[in-house]
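BUG: 3D viewer hangs when loading the predicted structure for this chain

Environment: internal workstation, default settings.
Expected: structure renders.
Actual: progress bar stalls at 90%.

Input used:
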Amino acid sequence: MTIKPLADRVVIKSVEAEETTKSGIILTAAAQEKPSIAEVVAVGPGGMVDGKEVEMFVKVGEKVLISKYAGTDVKVDGVEYSIVKQSDILAVVESAPETPAKKTAAKAPARKPAAKSTAKTSTAAKRGGRTAAKKTTGKKA
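Structure tokens produced before the viewer hung:
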């Protein structure tokens, strides 16, 4: 059996509620909240509703966010559905496109110490790496 909604009605099927909390506590069926995200199963044709032209914006297969107590619950062939007005749908849930991880300020890679050279070291290196700084005049050339 199929359900064909009329006017601005939408048939939705609730997405499974999580059975455990973030901390790992298992919830009983009575303690679980009614899920507010549902999948659209069927969409009515829209048209004139209460003297106003209604355009249907949701499509079959989309996941939507609905009001907590919206709609009428029905059971067809052992499956529970809700029939809601399009105006009871708060938003369409879109999955975010997969993006690469944010680039953080990368630290310069650690350099390996240079191999010791057999060549003679300069006198500046012998003095601890200090060299005389050149004096500059404030004038630009």
